[in-house]
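Appendix B, Record 12. Input sequence as logged:
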Amino acid sequence: MKSQSMTRRLAAVGLALAVTGAAAACSASKSSTGAGGSGSGSGGAAAGGTFTVWDPYPQFDSGSAWSQLLAKCGTQAGVTVKRTGFDTTDLTTKVLLAAQQGSSPDVLIVDNPVVSTLADAGVITDTGTTHLDTSGVAPNLLAAGQLAGKTYGVPIGANTLALYYNKAVLTAAGVDITSVKDWSSLTAALAKVHAAGKKGITFSAIGTEEGSFQFLPWFWGSGANLKQLDSSQGVAALSLWTGWLKQGYAPNSVINNTQTTSWQEFATGQYAFSENGTWQLANAKKAGFDYGIIPIPAMNGGTAAAPTGGEFVTIPVQDKTDRYSTSQKLVACLTSADNAQATDTTLSYVAATPAVQAKQVAADPDLQPWVAAVAAAKGRTSDDLGTKYPKISQPMWTAVQAALSGSSSPQAAMTTAQNAAAAATK
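Logged structural output:
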């Protein structure tokens, strides 16, 4: 029955993963090297055997702290862990195939927007079935792994977006960063920078999930809801971006920028601001100029909700359910306070629990703005969107491209996007 169900849903799942599988906010490299090998989690005894773990961290080899942690958690659970690291997109495809074949891993670590899709397809278990403890997790982060009232897995940590700023550029333009509190004051700061002969702000508006990921803080910060893309608030968010391009406050290159190329522009030292993620913190420290970080402001003040990136540790469905108790021990070990802090530091993530976040800030005060940004963040599949999100995101990034290129007005672009999203999510 499980195989037939998976076969019926595969086409829909494939579409969703094609949209969200780009890992808009993932620190993992695109290296093809992995550790260990794939194997079936559906065979063997419930304890004392080999348990398989699949993750999206191919950059970590068998000698890495991550691999050593997995081995330690296995030892504590009385089993041997066989780990395989995949590229994020490759991982989700292999998980679907493994589920069809009855050879799913025992533990799966997967990018958070994919969780609801895998849950809807019957690939992963809910925490009620496997008794995973999520009581200490921040509710806004846990929401990315929830569907139809159930929770699927535990977030290993989160990354999100904020505004990096170049202190020298702002000082030369006479801008006090404490004055930037909302959209109007941010735009006023960009005008001063432009008048001083420097460049304003760079971001990624590419026609992929990365573009949607970067647009969402402004969209949500306007008060808009993804179920109504063409609301006056949603149009205002897109008008903000198009206005910046028309006034020369943002470069035309944003239309094709990825988050990486956008960062490279900021790293030249010519820009006042860059919208980018937690994962750029190490690069910022190497940039060669003084920088600061502020949360992305909402339209009328306060912190805008930015989308959460990062992964969930989940337990795939197994034919032999007696394996779940050991898998639960592995997940509990991986997400425990001490281990989560070490892992999140390695990944440049903010921890999923306030208790560990406090420890991170105590160890590195530079993380405080990121903790604030994560506290205001929300999952892309939250608001009970689940598998509908990819069908909304694609029309949204298409609208952003149309408006920024000048081929459509913000209002017309968002109206077209709303019509497409409504048709796709019926």
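The longest strand covers residues 271-277.
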